[in-house]
Amino acid sequence: MISSGMRGLGILLLAAVALGGTGCGYLKARGRDAKNMIDLGISVNNTWKPQFGLYFDFFNMTPIGFGSLDCKVLGMGNRQIGWMDYENHSWGALAVGREKHGHGLFNAQDPEQARPDQRGLSERPAFDVGFVGAFTGEDNPPKLQYIECNRCIHLGWIGIQNTMRPLGILDFILGWTTFDLLGDDDLPEPQKP
Predict the structure, then answer these.
(1) CB-based contact 158:43 (threshold 8 Å)
(2) Antiparallel, parallel or unpaired: β 80-93 and 97-99
């Protein structure tokens, strides 16, 4: 008869072998998925000149507000963590708007930052948003941006930035079963500034 301690040790050993067999790539992909669930950071100006950003966009359908920011963010964004550049040049009037925002270095290979026809870009593009603008404009956002909520409040010299990705949360949960819902497990790591 096998004791419960030996059975537990056997299960733990079996799990370690199974996890070890998948290699380090599996855990790196889970970490990448975890960093893609939410962007969150404190924005701080680079200079003493005040900047303004009060902008909210829900699923690229209802943008409202205005933002003109070139600052730094302490937090995480676009699968990067730390002290990084942040830009938000956006405006919205519910039905229409224009949005250009992002953390750190731009990655044209990232399906959340650029469309497939924009893979050669070296600079972050701006997109038409709003329940009219996103469908009738010439610069439609990438498909994955339709499933995120972007919020930015920056008054003067400091603020907060938050982007929630519900589909990113589901991708993280399903990723533990090795199912890659967003197809982002093979993306290259973001460049270091």
Answers:
(1) yes
(2) antiparallel
* 77-89: b (≥16 Cβ within 10 Å) or e: bbbbeeebbbbbb
DSSP class of residue 21 equals H
Tokens of 65: 């507000």
CA of 118: how far to CAs of 10, 28, 139, in Å? 50, 26, 11
Rg of the chain on CA atoms, in Å: 20
Whether residue 145 contacts residue 164, with contact meaning beta carbons closer than 8 Å, is answered with: no
Full-model pTM = 0.78
Instruction: State how far the alpha carbon of 43 is from the alpha carbons of 23, 61, 73, 146, in Å.
Output: 37, 25, 4, 24
Q: How far apart are the first and last CA of the chain?
A: 59
pLDDT at position 1, please?
A: 52
Query: Would you say residue 127 has pLDDT above 90?
Result: yes
Helical residues (DSSP H) of 71-138, grouped into ranges: 133-136
Predicted confidence (pLDDT) per residue in 13-60, tens digit: 666 655 555 567 788 888 888 888 899 999 999 999 999 999 999 998
- Cα 132 to Cα 49, 87, 125, 127, 129, distances in angstroms: 35, 24, 19, 13, 7
